[in-house]
Amino acid sequence: RICVNTTGGALTLRGATAAFAALEPRWQSGRLRKPEAAPCCILSMEVVATLDLAASSRGRPCIALRPEGLRGLHPVPRHDGWRTSACTARQARAHDVRSAVRALWRSASLADALAGSSARCRCALREEVVAEKLRDFAALGTRNIPELCMLEPKEFVRRVILGAVAVDSGDWLQPLYRQERGTWRLCKLEVLFRLRDPTRIPFPAFMNFVQAATDHSDAPDTELRAAFEDLVVASVQRVDKYLSAMSREDLQDMRKAGIFMSINVTAKQLRSVLAVPLRCPDLIALEETEYDNEPDALTQLRLQAWTKFRALSLDDVLPTLADLEDSGSLAQTYVEPRVPLNGDSYKALPRKYNHDIPFARRFIRDFRRAREMHPDAQAEVKLSEDFCCYLIGVGHAPFARSAMSEWRSANIEASQSIRRIGLELIREAVVAGMTVCLEVSFADEDISWLCEAAPELVGQLCKQGGMSGPMAIPLSMVGTVFSPRCERSRCECEGNSTPRMFSAQV
User: Fold this and answer.
1) What is the rounded CA–CA span in Å between residue 255 and residue 269?
2) What is the Cα–Cα distance from 400 to 303, expressed in whole angstroms?
3) How far apart are CA 294 and CA 406, in angstroms?
4) Do 323 and 383 meet the contact criterion of CB atoms below 8 Å apart?
5) What end-to-end distance do the CA atoms of the chain give, in Å?
6) pTM of the model
7) What does the pLDDT read at residue 25?
8) Parallel, antiparallel, or unpaired for β 461-464 and 171-180?
9) By mean pLDDT, which of 66-70, 216-220, 329-333, 454-458 is the weakest?
10) Helices 400-410 and 412-431, interaxial angle, to 10°?
């Protein structure tokens, strides 16, 4: 129960709704009245947390936001399971209220108090906790067999996919994180193909197989296309089998934590995947990849996907030279980035691409239609590594930062145009109720300009890999790394023992 009390007038300001939305969506209940036209000031705010601590009589935490400017946070009375501290925020004028409230929230006093008191603590889902476990696992991992990495596509299908030499049939999981109140937490586990190495696919054999089996090839091989579709369908069934074997308690924890297992499918594979009978479709998300061209009735297939799975993402969105022209930029003046050491072309924008900006906007429109039918439907736009290089200057290659910094300095107009295209797409997606994922590992300072330019991204931004980079873990071992719940009386944030793991064994 959240109570907000005011002294001598109504709690409102022209940015009050946004200010409190930045704290926590749950606060936007009917009890929180925020008239829109009152003067711009905050008089006082009191937060009462009952949760599991309702029976305690040691007092209650209180934040005082003074009318002359946000000056400080009163120390929180000590509570079992609560962390206390005092912090200060700079003097704030009326239009600074939002940033000052955020500063107080991120001070860790109130946020940790609310999180630490919950019986379903989510501390085990924090990026640093998950990444440490992944790194420990990767240190024990083996490398891919070189011979298998060099196989031709059909031989790769025969010896690797049908031969079942990949650990867990190639179903490995990579974490994706979502920023919540300044902390990155696990939100999704994406199924990737791995052989034995937790950090990479069997390259180039797997990529050659995918390209030969899809519309990335001018003449896709029908036998390989069928094998690829069978692989995806079998992967969906294996993931569903794993989820079905989990305890009811663990499944409830996954649902409460909002964690999906995400599986990549091409647009032309959607129909086959939708026909698969599943027991836990609400915990499986689909990710529409760019490898195939658009099939007939794609919008209807997507609506069916949101009906069955509730969550669908659009993978690897990237602007093209045509998108630059459509935005009013002079695409003919565009100069591609170069590798610093040898001058080779690096991340050049294509002239044509399946998941370009207009295609992404159609996906957003389809999601709006899905939300009208299913208010709980979820969606995400994932910006490709190439797009991230232009947007935030970060890529997978060790030289990506220097290459893109040099390019941006020499191509200011093109850089601003691409960033503008990215911002417009991000805003459109967030307004529609979608999250946005950057498919690179980045530091918070890398996205500072992006969060300032698009404050609506707060709580809606995700990243792939994070501190653990490309590392993944076999499906059957996921219980040794990820857990949405702690089995102890006190929160891990206070430095206690390792959290319990999923009990599922397949």
Assistant:
1) 26
2) 37
3) 36
4) no
5) 40
6) 0.74
7) 37
8) antiparallel
9) 66-70
10) 110
